[in-house]
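Writing this down once: the sequence line spells out the residues, with the fold written below as integer tokens. This is how one looks:
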Amino acid sequence: MLTARLQHLGLSAGDRVLDLGCGEGRHVHGLYMIGGLEIDGIDLDAEALEKAEVGLSSLPPPRGSDDGVARFAQGDATALMFEDNTFDAVICSEVLEHLPDYHAAIAEIRRVLKPGGGLCISVPRAWPERICWHLAPPPDGYPFQPGGHIRIFDKVDLKISIERKGFRMVRRHYAHGLHAPLWWLKCAFWARRDDHPWVKTYHRFLVWDIMKRPPLTRVLDALLTPVMGKSLVMYFEKEGKL
């Protein structure tokens, strides 16, 4: 289940890509399957990184003739261990809403991204996210979990914040039209969000959709995503030339 559309990053064989806040590695795995890329997945969560490694080892051979390289490491989005101008592209998916100082993370992304390099950032879309905050309010609700979401982004404000760091937005879209109802159900039944029968049933439906990708749900997702897609996805280019 990829949020970023990898074809929008303009990747070529031999490019190096950073997935910042990679979680369990879904975008790293997708990039690896392209073949011929050098990919670094960085996250603070050691358990998620272990699952990402397991997932990588279970993948079939990449489509390209060159397998490429994928690796994972624990790291902080606001203090990356990489040198300046290291990466040809960066993905930062569903991360900024967790960070107290997301401006520092954007500055670090700019530092490690080559001039002219591509950046994909995704965050929860504002209006579906507001429903989650309303259904599971403080003091112990949805936005108040350790490591949880601490802000709701306005798409114009986020675009301006990123462009002020030396980027130019080139496109945007929404993603995951079928996924917002899962989180509304979780928040509506917050005390039983992991075992409520409605939550479990809808989750099984999403897993079935991801694995089988039947035409009916693909059409439904395409229709719903512009209206209620859970994620806002924005693509930028770092300004400047080497």
Q: What stands out?
A: Residues 197-212 form the longest helix (16 residues).
